[in-house]
Amino acid sequence: MTTLFLVRHGETVDNALQVMQGRTQGELNETGRRQACELAEKLAHEPIDTFVASDLKRAIETCEILAKPHGKPVVTTPLLEERDWGDFTGRFIPDLRGLPFPDNVESLDALLARARQFLDFIRANYPHQRVLAVGHGIINKAIQAVYYQKEMKDVPRMMNAEVRMLEL
Hints:
- The protein contains five helices and five strands.
- It is an alpha/beta fold.
- A five-stranded mixed β-sheet has the order 3-2-4-1-5, with helices on both faces.
- Strand 2, helix 3 (57-67) and strand 3 (74-77) form a beta-alpha-beta unit.
- The longest helix has 18 residues, at 108-125.
């Protein structure tokens, strides 16, 4: 059995400003770095074999902080990238409420398919290991929706630097 520690990256400048980041690189702010350091302390004595992150900067930076006490490198994958928000990217989130999604937003079907691919990737490449993976709010929600066979709306939102454990 593979144990997956699924983590959302620490708070970013855009999170604090309520800006839709999507697939932009993002930058951890001081709060985000502190959140990652606090989580790293909590997990320092947890045996973790592999550290995986989205290939976006905010996830990589969070994962590097978490991996440091273990002396392990970080592997990146685009499977963990945040949902592509298309024309919503870079916009103030409260202004988007109630608006129809632009045609260039990643579809829910594509997002869930990518979540399935990620779980298959972890099972295939890290059997019987303890893997910590740093992703983003919506892709992490999709991964949990696939894992628990639930609707996305039924998966509780993950806070920044929150960890949830899945047994694969």
